[in-house]
Amino acid sequence: MSPSSQRSRLRLVVVQVLAFSLFATLFVRLYYLQVIGGESYQAQAADQSVRDIVVQPQRGLIVDSQGRPLVANRTSWVISVDRTLLGKLEERQRTELVRRVAVAVETDPADVEASLVTCGDPGSVPEVCWNGSPYQPVPVATDVSKDVALRVLEQPEDYPGVLAEQQSVRSYPRPFGINLAHVLGYLSPVTEDEYDLAAERDDRSLNGASVVGRAGVEKQYDEWLRGLPGYRRVAVDSMGRVLGDDSLIESTPGDTLVTSIDAKVQSVVERQLAARIAFQRTQLDSVTGRKFAADSGAAVVLDAKTGRVIAMASQPTYDPDVWTGGISESELARLYSEDAGTPLLSRVTQGQFAPGSTWKPFMTAGALTNGYAMDTTLPCSSGFQVGNRVFKNYESGAYGNIGFAKALEVSCNTFFYRIGYDFWQRYGSDPADIGARDPLVEEAQEFGFGARTGIDLPGEAPGRIADRRWKQDYYESQKDYYCELSEKPQTDDTSDFVYRFAREFCLEGNLYRAGDAVNFSIGQGDTIVTPLQLARAYGALSNGGVLWEPTVAKAIVSPEGEVLRRIAPRRSGRVDVPKKYLDYIDSALENVSRVGTMAWKLGGFPIDEVTIRAKTGSAEVYGKQSTGWVASYSEDYVVVMMISQGGTGSGSTGEGIRAIWEALYGIEGETVRPARAATPGTVPPARLPQFLEDGSIMPPAVKP
After folding, report:
1. Of 282, 416, 450, 559, which one has the greatest count of Cβ atoms within 10 A?
2. What is the pLDDT, as a whole number, of residue 516?
3. Tens digit of pLDDT for each residue in 128-139?
4. Phi-psi region of 344 (alpha: psi -120 to 50; beta: other; left: phi over 0)
5. Radius of gyration of the chain from its Cα atoms, rounded to whole angstroms
6. H or E segment at 72?
7. Residue 268, phi then psi, degrees to nearest 5
8. Residue 47 CA neighbour count, 13 Å, CB half
9. How far apart are CA 126 and CA 134, in angstroms?
10. Strands (E), 337-388
11. d(CA 213, CA 604)
């Protein structure tokens, strides 16, 4: 064989060996993929063709003390977009689809695009971006009309990857037409931070598409109400289109919150507060000659024996349904707007006002427990001079020498001025001594003022007792501003009053003078309270001295009707005032209703059968009209109503207070009809039966 033939044969052998090696390697690899690793790869392939979709749970109901639904759920059509399929479209097709969806749901294409961006990605907008699973369709519009939903469902070729589904959203049955927005609160989508925190805690009740409570009991009891989501596994094709269900884990509905609110009483309170504000706006202020602004108001009814909240109303208010399906920027701006009266602010728990003469019963307790006697008499003159200033009695009235009971009955300011001045002289005549004792301040703190009541609603304001320590702290926080202002030459923009005030504040704004003490004694000056604080303190006068932490919730009930938790009333303390003094104050406040400053609003009221104790108040506010108060109580309830810039206490709110008492006890004219009482007095049911046609719940069956 020639050398050339041998070389050719050798090359052929090499090629054959290489070919055999390649086939052997391929065979081994195929054997590994199909036999050894087959199960693993099959699982991975199957996993790629199955996706998890979160099934949101129905949020728990909120009901009143009689089982009437205050917050329920309804179905809403939601339009969602599958981003996986959207990403496989050409740019032109994608833009056209987004435009078509925006037109269908009546929004801007830019808003649709913003809702499709994952939170944390470049260009994401907080509160708008998507926080959920990348495989889950993203909702771009909620509460759309049925016609829009049917159009999407019936024209899939025009809306590829767009889904129309029914989901559960909040609804407000409004028994007796009530609003109750500030108690119920509202919901909004979970934030990115909340979602991340829930993931760290392995909290499976939250997911990227969850909504959470932001105010009221919706926020306070959110973890009970939200339930647990379920998961639906769906098979998809290579384009991400859903082929069918693979498996389903049912969601768990949230628990029901039973509250102490009585919807029938609430309706009376809301109507009366709104009516009194509307009426006062038609009346002329005798001081200014202008109509009363009556810019806001609040009313609250408590159970005097337990501190439970029976009704709570605030004006201005808002429609709680405005949050359902998302709120517009203009509507949100209105809720925070001062021009609109800041409707989002609950005046009962967050509004802070000078208490005026409703403060005097607590000053009476402070005086009686610190050296004064029940038979003490002092002049009720038309004025009381402190330094170079005369502090006036209301309308400069004078009643001669009177005791505490008469001073409360006629609401004599100069009587209490003398007490405040006396304590200032005895314990703290040095204005710079911030550690000086003040018995009246101590008594106010004893009744819980200057601190939060502990109500089970978020965002409660603490009020303020403007004592020596507060004045020093305030001075230190503001002195740089006022000292700098006083050192500059006065300009046309700075009034004489502001310039003079700045100079005086810079020099001695920390001094607690006799004028501060006498103002404190009648609930004027810088001391402010919330209507709820005042109601809680009057509750202590009613029940013998117990301070309760007001509560809205009574029980948590599972979807199956099992009582998971009973929320008992909570005592926060007892006032250190002897019973004989509480009884004395109680008797004096009864006379306020019979013959005093509240009597003209209770003519014909059966006060011998339903004994009402009351105190009126008109708090003067610099640069504004007076704030009108009436605080009242019986052995069962406490009722407080106030109107900012509404005028005198009984003049602005007296008729509303009376109407509420008539509803509570079923009073018609001069007759008490217990069967007509708004609250029949039932116990929390052990099980929640079905709703009746009028929105109420049948009482539970009595076990033999």
Report:
1. 416
2. 96
3. 787 666 657 888
4. alpha
5. 35
6. strand 69-81
7. -65, -45
8. 6
9. 17
10. 378-380, 383-386
11. 46
Q: Model confidence at 241, in pLDDT bands (50, 70, 90)?
A: low
The 3 state secondary structure assigned to 125-141 is CCCCCECCCCCCCEEEE
How far apart are the C-alpha atoms of 128 and 111, rounded to whole Å? 9
Among 628, 419, 397, 656, which Cα is nearest to 520's? 419
Query: Cβ–Cβ contacts within 10 Å for residue 110, how many?
Result: 10
Helix 531-543 and helix 579-594, axial crossing angle in degrees, nearest 10: 110
> Over the range 9-39, which residues count as b (16 or more CB within 10 Å of their CB) and which as e?
eeeeeeeeeeeeeeeeeeeeeeeeeeeeeee
Mean pLDDT calculated for residue range 193-219 = 85
pLDDT at 328 over 80: no
Q: Whats the size of the chain, residue-wise? A: 704
Give the up-direction half-sphere exposure of residue 26: CA atoms within 13 A in the CB hemisphere: 6
What whole-number distance in Å separates Cα of residue 143 and Cα of residue 167?
9
Q: Which two tokens stand for residue 374?
A: 């029940």
Reading the block at residue 419, the tokens are 């007490």
Contacts of 645-648 spanning 24+ positions with Cβ under 8 A: 645/292, 645/293, 645/294, 645/295, 645/621, 646/276, 646/277, 646/280, 646/292, 646/294, 646/297, 647/280, 647/283, 647/285, 647/292, 647/618, 648/616, 648/618
DSSP state of 70: E
686 Cβ contact list (under 8 Å, min separation 6): 561, 563, 700
pLDDT at 695: 38
Token pair of 575 as six digits: 């006032």
In 3D space, the residue among 59, 56, 34, 32 whose CA is nearest the CA of residue 45 turns out to be 34
Residue 495, Cβ neighbours under 10 Å: how many? 11
To 5 degrees, how large is the angle CA 609–CA 309–CA 443?
A: 80
Q: Token pair of 292, please?
A: 């009363």
**Measured between alpha carbons, how far is 424 from 436 in angstroms, rounded to an integer?**
9
Burial of 576 (0-12, 13-18, 19+ CB in 10 A): exposed
Q: How far is CA 243 from CA 50, 97, 151, 283, in A?
A: 10, 21, 21, 69
141 confidence band (pLDDT: 50, 70, 90):
confident
Residue 140, both tokens: 């771009």
What are 248-295's pLDDT values in tens digits?
Answer: 778 899 999 999 999 999 999 999 999 999 999 999 998 888 999 999
Q: How confident is the model over 470-488, as a mean pLDDT?
A: 93
Q: What is the dihedral sign for C-alpha 372, 377, 383, 386? A: negative
The span from the CA of 329 to the CA of 234, in Å, is 36
More confident residue, 449 or 190: 449
- The CA distance from 192 to 118, in Å, is 10
Contacts of residues 117-121 at CB distance under 8 Å and 24 or more positions apart, as own/partner, are 119/192, 119/195, 119/208, 120/192
**Averaged pLDDT, 567-574:** 95
Looking at per-residue pLDDT, the higher value among 627 and 56 belongs to 627
**Percent of the chain clearing pLDDT 70 (strictly above):** 87
**pLDDT given at position 685:** 31
Place of tokens 């402010």: 528
- Tell me the pLDDT tens digit for each residue of 14-52: 667 676 777 777 766 666 656 665 555 454 444 456 666
Residues 522, 516: Cα–Cα separation, whole Å: 11
213 pLDDT above the threshold of 60: yes
3-state SS record for 95-132: HHHHHHHHHHCCCCHHHHHHHHCECCCCCCCCCCCECC
